Every structure is written in structure tokens, then in C-alpha cells.
Amino acid sequence: MALLYLPNEIILQISGILELPDYSSLLRCNRRLAGLLMPTFLNYTLRCPNTQGKLALQLAAKRGDIGTINALVDLGLPSLITEGHHISYICPTLTPTAIITLLSNKYFSVDARDTLGRTALYIAARDNPTAVRCLLSHGGDVNAATYRARKTPLMRASKSNEPDVIRILLADEETDVNGQDLYGCAPLYFATDHGCVNAMAALLEYSGINVKLSSFETACMKGHWEAVRMLLARYDMVD
């Protein structure tokens, strides 16, 4: 017999032994099932907010289910989750659908920070150009720096050798290509220090970048000879 034709009591009994992804699928299957199971589903997420609750938010975000996100927020679930206000903690893959769905609710902010002061944009700058583009389109602060070390998304992308991310960030006129962290290091220094020549190439395309002698000295000291050659080609190197 099809599930839809079973008595409500039997459906509720069956739902009690399902894993959360299967439970979530039932909510999308049919309006009657959604109306029947939603109260139980909401209570289910509150039992273990850091596991079941987080997964419920993540699944809803990934499938673009704004209604379920709103219901979970109204229930107060995100406030019970460690870092529950941070969209990259809720959904680490930061797909455009998840970003758009979570940011549709005012509880979530594009510039929310974790305990280290990292925004979703900073985290995405490591290896996720699609997320970077989406977050910027939703008003993400391109220069938001971490709390202590004052590192920006562009510094993270430079250190991670992510030329695509660098070019997306530099396409925003607000990006500070010469901004310095707590120790006086700029994005080009991070790329040079790690021998990230692809990142260096993307940074050096930008006309407003300051090419400092310290980057050249670091490249020589660490034996990053391709980086040395790239820097020597610059006539505007300054001390």
C-alpha cells in the first residue's frame, strides 16, 4: 500500500524510525504529509540542535526550501546551534542555492562572523569562486578582516593560489589590493611567500598593486625562482 493511503497514526510511527534526510524528503513529497509531519519534524530537530538541527537547516538550504528555513528559524533552532548564525557553518559547501535560501531569512547575515572573525566570504575565498561571486552579489564585505590577524578574503585567496577568486575579488572596486594584516603583510606577499605563481599573476594584472622589495627578498630567500622572475619583470618595485 502506498504511504499516502496509510492512516495518519501509521505514517507517524514510520516517520519515527526514519533518518533525517528521509524525513526531509517526506516533507517535500506531499502537502498532506508536510502538514502532518512538520510539527514532529520541528521537535525532532530540537533534540540535538548541533547535529540533527544543523543537518535539517543544511538539507533545507541545499534544496532551496525557504519555508522550512523560516519555520526552523521561528522555532529558535539556529540560536541553539554553535555558530548557528553563520551560513558557512550551516552549509560548508556554500552552493548558490544554499546561500540564497539562508539569506532569504533576516536571521542570517552575509557578513556574520565566526569566533575567529571569519565571514562566509573569507572562508569561500580559499577554493570556491562560485560562492565568492554569489556572496559578493548579496553585499558581502570584500575587505572584512579576521579579528586578530586582520586577514582579508584577498589574502586568503592569494595564500591558497586561487587566481579565479582573486580576479573576482579584484573586479569589485572596493577591494583593497594593498591592504595589510596585523604584521604588515599584503596579498602579494602571501602569494610570494608560498610560491603561488598563479595567484601572483592574477594580482600583478591589477594596475593599482604596490610591488614591494620585501616580496622579492622573500621569494629569493625561499627559492621561489619563478616568483623572483615575475617580480624582476616589474619596473615599479618599491622599497
TrEMBL record:
Organism (species): Choiromyces venosus 120613-1
Keyword hit for Repeat: yes
Domain of life: Eukaryota
Keywords attached to this entry: ANK repeat, Repeat
The name this protein goes by in its record: Ankyrin
